[in-house]
């Protein structure tokens, strides 16, 4: 059997970013509005610092405003809530991003719930989750599931109808919204998790397999239906197998095994990861369009 087609998330994300840049220029020209995202980072988690820097660079590259709030790890919850209140009230801020994870002394749900839903660029607010779950217009869709769906549509030529989809993982940030998006595409959706019986068997039935479980290389090659499309959301840093003291990134899928069975597969790195940041840019543009009464880019509507 031929090896799987490699889904190039990096290239697709570059194209999406170019389309967002065009949308930004058009909004400036038509309404005199520059989309702006407030980027809130609390503490010094090294991975979060890297992601936040990439987001701030992407904003600048695409002609958007970035309002950076890098706060100390011992910032109090009340101070963070007060910052969110200020950003909610600032008309130049169209989107607010609070980088996760937050330090343990801060109640993440309380912070996310404080962001007004129309500025919730990550789509994590319960109002946006509810709009998505009910198929209502105006939902801001979480970036990683949105990016995964755009890659799936591109791979399958928009033909997801009737396909059996298995989402492995039930987080509020990826698994649940991913399942909602696939349902909207008329897939037959199963959500599997750590307590699912016969996980390999469930996976083997899937035409579309989205792995978002956060366990390095958990999905083995013989769990995959021949020809299935595999979207690997996992980003796990593990000890390098041959270079002592070094680490490497792997997904939730054993790539070398899966690539021999699947019809198409996202690599890690270079698959879903770059789409997360591109979709954040898209959601920020969409929020600015809504605030200005301008048409919202179709890709953001899922
Ligand atoms: N508020 C949020 N916090 C977090 C989110 C999120 O969507 N919103 N997601 C992750 C981290 N994340 C963005 O914040 C993110 C993760 C990975 C990538 C990415 O491009 N990964 C590269 C590899 C990067 C590397 O070498 O480490 C890839 O997969 O090719 C982008 C964004 C948790 N927090």
UniProtKB/TrEMBL annotation:
Its EC number is 1.5.1.5, 3.5.4.9. One of its GO terms (biological process) is purine nucleotide biosynthetic process. It catalyses: (6R)-5,10-methenyltetrahydrofolate + H2O = (6R)-10-formyltetrahydrofolate + H(+); (6R)-5,10-methylene-5,6,7,8-tetrahydrofolate + NADP(+) = (6R)-5,10-methenyltetrahydrofolate + NADPH. Keywords: Amino-acid biosynthesis, Histidine biosynthesis, Hydrolase, Methionine biosynthesis, Multifunctional enzyme, NADP, One-carbon metabolism, Oxidoreductase, Purine biosynthesis. Pathway: One-carbon metabolism; tetrahydrofolate interconversion. Residues 7-122 form the Tetrahydrofolate dehydrogenase/cyclohydrolase catalytic domain. The keyword Hydrolase applies. NADP(+) binds at residues 169-171, 235. InterPro entries: Aminoacid_DH-like_N_sf (IPR046346), NAD(P)-bd_dom_sf (IPR036291), THF_DH/CycHdrlase (IPR000672), THF_DH/CycHdrlase_cat_dom (IPR020630), THF_DH/CycHdrlase_CS (IPR020867), THF_DH/CycHdrlase_NAD-bd_dom (IPR020631). One of its GO terms (cellular component) is cytosol. One of its GO terms (molecular function) is methylenetetrahydrofolate dehydrogenase (NADP+) activity. Residues 142-290 form the Tetrahydrofolate dehydrogenase/cyclohydrolase NAD(P)-binding domain. PANTHER family: C-1-TETRAHYDROFOLATE SYNTHASE, CYTOPLASMIC, C-1-TETRAHYDROFOLATE SYNTHASE, CYTOPLASMIC-RELATED. Homodimer. HAMAP family: THF_DHG_CYH. Catalyzes the oxidation of 5,10-methylenetetrahydrofolate to 5,10-methenyltetrahydrofolate and then the hydrolysis of 5,10-methenyltetrahydrofolate to 10-formyltetrahydrofolate. Belongs to the tetrahydrofolate dehydrogenase/cyclohydrolase family. This is Bifunctional protein FolD. It comes from Azospirillum baldaniorum. The gene is folD.
């Amino acid at each position: 059997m031929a090896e799987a087609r490699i889904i190039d998330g990096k290239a697709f994300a570059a194209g999406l970013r170019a389309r967002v840049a065009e949308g930004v220029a058009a909004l400036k020209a038509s309404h005199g509005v520059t989309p702006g995202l407030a980027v809130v980072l609390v503490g010094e988690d090294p991975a979060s610092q890297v992601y936040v820097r990439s987001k701030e660079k992407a904003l600048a590259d695409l002609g958007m405003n970035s309002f950076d709030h890098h706060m100390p790890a011992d910032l109090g919850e009340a101070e963070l809530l007060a910052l969110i209140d200020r950003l909610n009230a600032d008309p130049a801020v169209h989107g607010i991003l609070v980088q996760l994870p937050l330090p343990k002394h801060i109640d993440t749900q309380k912070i996310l719930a404080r962001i007004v839903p129309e500025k919730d660029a990550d789509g994590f607010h319960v109002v946006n989750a509810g709009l998505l779950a009910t198929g209502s217009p105006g939902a801001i869709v979480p970036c990683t599931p949105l990016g995964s769906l755009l890659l799936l549509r591109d791979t399958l030529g928009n033909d997801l109808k009737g396909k059996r989809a298995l989402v492995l993982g039930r987080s509020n940030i990826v698994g649940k919204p991913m399942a909602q998006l696939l349902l909207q595409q008329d897939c037959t959706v199963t959500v599997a998790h750590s307590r699912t019986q016969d996980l390999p068997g469930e996976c083997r039935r899937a035409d579309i397999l989205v792995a978002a479980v956060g366990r390095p290389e958990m999905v083995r090659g013989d769990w995959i239906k021949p020809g299935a499309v595999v979207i690997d959301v996992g980003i796990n840093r593990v000890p390098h197998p041959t270079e002592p003291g070094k680490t490497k990134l792997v997904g939730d899928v054993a790539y070398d095994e899966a690539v021999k069975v699947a019809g198409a597969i996202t690599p890690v790195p270079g698959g879903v990861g770059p789409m997360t940041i591109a979709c954040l840019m898209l959601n920020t543009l969409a929020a600015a369009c809504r605030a200005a009464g301008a048409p919202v880019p179709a890709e953001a509507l899922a």
